[in-house]
Design goal:
Elements lengths: L4 E4 L4 H10 L5 H19 L5 H4 L1 H32 L3 E4 L3 E6 L2 E6 L5 E4 L3 E5 L5 E5 L4 H10 L3 E3 L6
Parallel strand pairs: 5-8
Antiparallel strand pairs: 1-2, 2-3, 3-4, 5-6, 6-7
Helix pairs in contact: 1-4, 2-4
């Protein structure tokens, strides 16, 4: 019989919010946002126009667009995920040496380890990327070492540093 690890991923709203924003450091869109921010700051600093306020307009416009569009969108999505967890219970992840499965709200996703793009480790969350832009969020806990060891044995790329909490 295979070794089976079952992780019940209890979620809180603050944890989901942090995890959603924290995911940007692992996805290509996060690098694009960081690059755009650096360019906006460089343009603002390098321009020596008639007014300091006018020099910083590109940066301020970028930050306003970010705040008015992206942040409320992510907060609504985090709230939706939290309410789904409250109604149907937390997602359950089942890990075997050959597969990983997520069961939540009557839906089941069952993937072989070769289908997993990577696993990223942050201070509070394990991000299991099912492709380059979409991840399952798993709170870090006592079972993370076994999950990471199973994934690594299956040849999944692990990013970040698994450190003790």
């Amino acid at each position: 019989m295979e070794d089976v690890l079952v992780i019940r991923a209890a979620r809180t709203l603050p944890w989901l919010r942090r995890s959603m924003f924290g995911m940007y450091r692992w996805v290509p869109a996060g690098f694009v946002l960081l690059g755009a921010l650096v360019i906006a700051v460089a343009l603002s600093v390098s321009t020596h126009g008639p007014s300091l306020v006018l020099d910083w307009v590109p940066f301020l416009v970028f930050v306003c667009v970010l705040v008015l569009w992206m942040i409320p969108r992510h907060l609504r999505l985090a709230r939706k995920l939290y309410l789904m967890s409250e109604i149907s219970g937390p997602p359950v992840f089942t890990v075997t040496p050959t597969r990983i499965r997520c069961e939540h709200d009557g839906n089941t996703s069952d993937l072989s380890w070769s289908s997993i793009h990577s696993i990223c480790v942050s201070s509070r969350t394990l991000y299991v990327f099912v492709n380059r832009h979409c991840a399952w969020f798993i709170p870090r806990g006592g079972q993370q070492d076994q999950l990471l060891a199973t994934a690594q044995a299956a040849g999944v790329r692990i990013r970040g540093r698994p450190r003790a909490r």
